[in-house]
Specification:
By secondary structure, this protein is an alpha/beta fold. The protein has helices spanning 9-17, 31-35, 51-61, 77-85, 102-115, 131-139, 152-163, 186-201, 217-220, 229-232, 248-259, 275-283, 295-311, 335-342, 354-363, 367-370, 377-387, 400-411, and strands spanning 43-48, 70-75, 93-98, 121-126, 144-147, 173-179, 205-209, 264-268, 286-291, 319-325, 346-351. The chain folds into 2 domains: 9-27 and 36-163, Response regulator (Rossmann fold, 3-Layer(aba) Sandwich), CATH 3.40.50.2300; 173-387, Rossmann fold.
């Protein structure tokens, strides 16, 4: 908290727009979760007055977006913060909740400013919608003022805005694809969705195949890249006489670099379970689980879904893709039963079609490249658009008689 003009463009603009009446209240919609981006490795200390606010900060601290930050929560509000920092150095960010009126809060913040080290940011959560207080906080260099009640997603969005430059390109989204069981076609779903995402949105997409020994990305795309993900992870070339020891931190580093350079990073995870696999799933923006409609897939998918529900409370539920459905003469679990057991609706159900998928694989093509009339082609479009939170606009077909009337009008 330094005595300088606030440089947050969104905050300054909001102050100008509402300066005659009241300060803006943060949007309380689901969009807050989507707008909140990962926060760097910083130290955050919160001083709350109410147990509810302390719980909100604690919930936010357990979210994947704050996984790199060190967060501690204290009670006592602004008064306790001043007492604490008279004897201790200040962290990168201080969050102060206070229900004090303007006449009492401003002196406490002035005392806090005297204790703050240069570069420390301060976010104030108040219970008074007071534009004069708002302006005074701006003058004192407070980074953000939020009006209670505040939810964990809203708090994360505000903190994200402080540490993500609005003038730079946004941090790319990460989509993790994993199979509930080996051999269910998760890589095929992943690669087709990534290709469709790139084609439909005319955007750059990185596909990271983390199956270093047996990955099929190069074959599926008919590419022989000079540098693979193994090189990025600083491991030897992809050969079977080598071991591949991937660390969670190594994965984080590669994904962070990738997402800084493209808007979409698609991760093809091998079937298996390890510390780094779990880390990637928990840190991804969206997760897609591919499963075949049998009992083993249902059990494994349920375990993954339960883990994600427990660990990603502020995120969307994972997406479910049923692949290789309706295999002739094979007993299968009905779609409705599969969905009810997982508590998810299938994003797509792709029928068993060995001829189309086999030919595409042998040609090094995606399904839509091979034939845009293939039954699975529009399903991959739906998967890609859902992940990107986009909708395709399709031209409406006019009835035959409407076209005939138009022609008659032209002749007249």
């Amino acid at each position: 908290m330094t005595r300088q003009t606030n440089t947050n463009p969104a905050f300054a603009a909001a102050g100008a727009e509402y300066s005659d009446f009241e300060i803006p209240v943060i949007d309380q919609s689901q969009d807050s979760m989507e707008r909140a981006r990962p926060i760097p490795r910083i130290s955050i200390q919160a001083f709350c007055e109410q147990n509810h606010m302390a719980g909100v900060v604690q919930d936010a601290s357990e979210d994947r977006r704050l996984s790199k930050a060190h967060v501690s929560v204290h009670m006592g509000g602004a008064v306790a913060a001043v007492q604490h920092y008279q004897e201790s150095p200040t962290p990168n960010l201080i969050i102060v909740e206070s229900a004090l009126p303007r006449q009492q809060l401003l002196p406490e913040l002035d005392r806090l400013a005297e204790c703050c080290d240069p570069g420390t940011k301060v976010v104030v959560i108040g219970h008074v919608n007071d534009v004069i207080l708002y302006r005074e906080l701006l003058k004192r260099g407070v980074s953000e003022y939020l009006v209670a009640p505040v939810t964990a997603p809203q708090l994360m969005e505000s903190l994200s805005n402080l540490y993500n430059d609005p003038e730079s390109d946004p941090v790319g989204h990460v989509y993790a694809f994993i199979g509930a069981k080996g051999g269910v076609g998760s890589s095929t779903i992943c690669h087709n969705a990534a290709w469709t995402l790139s084609e439909a949105l005319k955007s750059n997409v990185i596909v990271a195949d983390l199956d270093l020994a047996f990955g099929t990305t190069g074959l599926d795309f008919n590419q022989d890249p000079v540098q693979g993900i193994a090189d990025a992870l600083a491991t030897p070339p992809v050969v079977l006489d080598r071991d591949y020891d991937i660390t969670p931190d190594g994965c984080d580093m590669v994904i962070d670099v990738a997402r800084q350079n493209v808007p979409y990073v698609v991760i093809d995870l091998p079937h298996g379970w390890s510390a780094w696999t779990k880390r990637v799933l928990l840190q991804a923006d969206e997760v897609v689980i591919t499963a075949a409609p049998d009992l083993a897939n249902l059990r494994n998918a349920k375990n993954i879904v339960e883990l994600l529900k427990q660990s990603r409370r502020n995120d969307n539920l994972p997406h479910l893709v049923i692949n290789m459905a309706n295999v002739p003469k094979r007993p299968e679990i009905a779609l409705k039963e599969f969905e009810e057991a997982l508590g998810l609706k299938a994003l797509a159900v792709i029928d068993f079609d060995p001829e189309t998928f086999g030919q595409a694989s042998n040609n090094g093509q995606m399904i839509e490249e091979l034939s845009n009339r293939a039954k699975a082609a529009p399903m991959f479009r739906d998967i890609a658009m859902t992940l990107a939170h986009r909708r395709e606009t399709k031209a409406e077909k006019k009835p035959a008689f409407a076209s005939l009337l138009e022609k008659l009008k032209l002749k007249r």
